[in-house]
Amino acid sequence: MKNVLGTTLQLCSRSPLTGYHRDGFCKTDNNDKGRHVIASIMTEKFLAFTRSKGNDLSTPNVLYGFPGLKENDRWCLCALRWKEAYEAGYAPPVVLEATHEKALEFVDLEILIEHSVRSESTS
Predict the structure, then answer these.
(1) What range defines the domain where residue 56 resides?
(2) Rounded to an integer, what distance in angstroms lies between the CA atom of residue 109 and that of residue 106?
């Protein structure tokens, strides 16, 4: 698997455990209709924005084993939600090394680079 830089896809997060397949990686397949491919670092601003759009990522959901996200958590976001947040001025930072190359079908690399942070070791 490749990231948007054309190198090996890196881990996004194991704590909280993220990814469509809940394996820590922002990889996708044909069943992933949301394309959870953009490795992002949560901000309060983004969490409030996505909650206002009907997708509350802050509140735990025990039924799905979802712990709820807080600022600085890493999470694999749906490409179109990230793009929507970008267009509204609320896009969270991106970890390019952990962002799947499929993200480029939705967002230009230059935009992702503008919002990128240096990759650090993940949880």
Answers:
(1) 1-123
(2) 10
Tokens 């491919």 found at: 37
Peptide bond into 16 cis (omega under 30): yes
pLDDT tens across 29-84, in order? 999 999 999 999 999 999 999 999 999 999 999 888 889 999 999 999 999 999 99
Check the CA dihedral 105-108-109-115 and report its sign: negative
Q: How far apart are CA 20 and CA 76, in angstroms?
A: 8
- Kindly report the CATH number assigned to the domain that includes residue 1: 3.30.56.110
Task: Quote the number of domains for the chain.
Answer: 1
